[in-house]
Design a protein that fits this description.
heterodimer, A: 276 residues, globular, B: 290 residues, mainly alpha, MetI-like fold, 13 helices, 2 strands, 1% strand
Chain lengths: 276, 290
């Protein structure tokens, strides 16, 4: 073992600490500003809030429409996540366990979808939606999310399922269980780690998405959190405390997910990198 | 005939239905769309214009500028995210104390909604003298800078925000790669008298070359398509000088009703994304054979 000198160690930690402050500052700034009056946000940007303005939060939630947007986003995200997990795992099961003519082809078709840019589909889709006169439809929005979740979900679940021993299933099949029954009673419970990884990816994708609701949702009562933030900021440009409170509300679900499921979230986000 | 045919079809169908209907057909349709013009009114039929939209696109100064902007944006992101991600991973790598906490903090921005972080950075870059960054700079006697309102600095500000948000991703990839480097080799080198710097340059970096490549490729493909951060921070302004192709596409189609031109840009983005992925897969493949 080579010992590092004390100075180089000190330097290293000094650099890391400084860098940490730099990285943490924007989030710290949002947090303290969300509890300040709009004047204090500017006059004392670095200070701890004094007095603490809790009222920024109810104002953002009620007047800023952030409460409605938050609930809408929760609803959309949960439905999207559950449906994506279920149908993605079903496809992954077939593609990994029941080889048939063309199974490789369908797998490639799914995974190739990772290359489809979201912005390239919005013009034809809005053309078609105009033709069939569908506006402000959550079904449509959620279908879009589910469609764009499929490549990663199928990729993760297919590869995860390849790692589960076949013997488990075969034994049960001999006992006379049907494959559908097995899928729900054995395969899904065993695949929970893989499904979680994919679901985190899907959760962040739907929660953080801006483009699809921007194009396909115009009703105020149906807005999602990303749009809500945008329009709150545009309408109440001088309500700095309120906007910061709205920002904090919007980043809370991803932060909670990350803090409680750190390893899984990292795995889910970097899953695409494994493939390269 | 496979005895599981029924099951295969019924299990594969739901996923395929969503995917084909809402992603695959639209992307193919978008290429078709690029040869038509349409004013954005559903009762008006499409008008065939051949390569007209593409001619318009490549002769549009705004589009050419958006290409330049995205190239610079991608360049900054590749350089700084890779340097920060791998630099910090190497710095933290061999010392485990505080490792988890650092990693938690550095990766946190990656999971945040880009709309929120873009607004946050918009605040930090507010142009008035009381803006966060400006008031910080005034402590050192630096005059207020216009940041996002000045086309000269705007793109760099957006890139800075994006680097802040994204470098943690590459840090995680770097960590994963570094832990696979054989400790035996490092120990042997240490016994042979290699210092820390030599170990990094001669052993660790060459062993994680592929991870670095993957990081760079993901950075390029991801940021070529970046929409949110530019849209929220500047909306392409001031004077349409900070557009990237994806925001320009959105504005042309949905703001100015130039759906034809928008579609051509959309097709261009898709083609570029395919090209970059194709080239990089080739590059990675040949690297692995070495």
């Amino acid at each position: 073992m080579q010992l590092e000198t004390r100075t180089s160690k000190t330097l290293k930690y000094a650099f890391l600490t400084l860098f940490t402050l730099l990285v943490a500052f924007p989030v710290y700034f949002a947090l303290v500003s969300s509890l300040k009056s709009s004047i204090d946000v500017f006059l004392k940007p670095f200070r701890w809030p004094q007095p603490v303005m809790w009222e920024n939060y109810p104002r953002a939630i009620a007047i800023g429409n952030i409460g409605v947007c938050f609930l809408n986003s929760i609803y959309i995200t949960v439905v999207t996540m559950v449906v994506s997990a279920l149908i993605g795992t079903m496809a992954g099961y077939v593609l990994s366990r029941l080889p048939f003519k063309g199974s490789k082809f369908w797998y490639v078709i799914f995974v190739a979808g990772m290359m489809i840019p979201m912005q390239s589909v919005i013009i034809p889709l809005s053309f078609v939606m105009g033709k069939v006169q569908v506006h402000d439809s959550y079904i449509m929005l959620m279908s879009l999310y589910i469609a764009f979740n499929m490549p990663m979900t199928v990729f993760i679940t297919t590869n995860f399922l390849k790692g589960i021993p076949k013997e488990l299933e075969e034994a049960a099949l001999i006992d006379g269980s049907t494959r559908t029954y097995l899928f729900f009673r054995i395969i899904i419970p065993l695949s929970i780690p893989g499904i979680t990884t994919a679901s985190i990816f899907n959760f962040l994708g739907s929660w953080n998405n801006l483009l699809f609701p921007l194009v396909f949702v115009s009703k105020k009562s149906m807005q999602v959190i990303a749009i809500g933030l945008q329009s709150f900021f545009a309408q109440r440009i001088s309500d700095y405390g309120g906007v910061m409170a709205a920002i904090i509300i919007s980043i809370l679900p991803p932060i909670l997910a990350y803090v409680f499921l750190q390893e899984k979230v990292e795995e889910g986000m970097v899953a695409g990198a494994v493939k390269g | 005939m496979n005895k599981n045919t029924g099951l295969i079809i019924s299990f594969l169908f739901p996923a395929l239905a969503f995917y084909v209907l809402m992603a695959l057909i639209p992307i193919v349709y978008s290429l078709y769309f690029a040869f038509f013009d349409w004013p954005g009114i559903h009762t008006v039929p499409l008008k065939f214009v051949g390569f007209g939209n593409f001619v318009k696109m490549f002769t549009s100064p705004r589009f050419l500028l958006s290409l330049k902007n995205v190239a610079w944006f991608v360049f900054l992101n590749v350089v700084f995210q890779t340097l920060l991600g791998y630099g910090i991973a190497l710095l933290l790598g061999t010392y485990l104390r505080g490792f988890k906490q650092f990693k938690l903090l550095f990766f946190l921005p990656v999971v945040l909604p880009m709309t929120a972080t873009s607004l946050l950075w918009k605040f930090i870059f507010l142009p008035n003298p009381t803006g966060v960054l400006n008031s910080l700079l005034s402590l050192f006697g630096v005059d207020a800078v216009a940041w996002l309102l000045d086309a000269q600095t705007a793109m760099n500000c957006i890139a800075a925000a994006n680097i802040w948000q994204g470098f943690g991703y590459h840090l995680i990839i770097a960590f994963a790669a570094i832990t696979t480097v054989s400790t035996d080799m490092i120990e042997a080198a240490t016994i042979d008298g290699c210092n820390r710097f030599q170990r990094v340059m001669k052993i660790i970096l060459p062993s994680i070359r592929n991870a670095i490549m993957i990081s760079i490729i993901l950075n390029v493909t991801g940021n070529l398509k970046n929409f949110d951060i530019v849209f929220v921070m500047t909306e392409g302004g001031p004077n349409n000088l900070t557009h990237v192709p994806s925001t320009l596409m959105y504005v042309e189609a949905f703001k100015y009703d130039h759906y034809g031109l928008g579609s051509a840009i959309a097709a261009f983005i898709f083609a570029l994304s395919l090209l970059v992925t194709g080239v990089s897969t080739k590059l990675l493949g040949s690297k692995e054979n070495v």
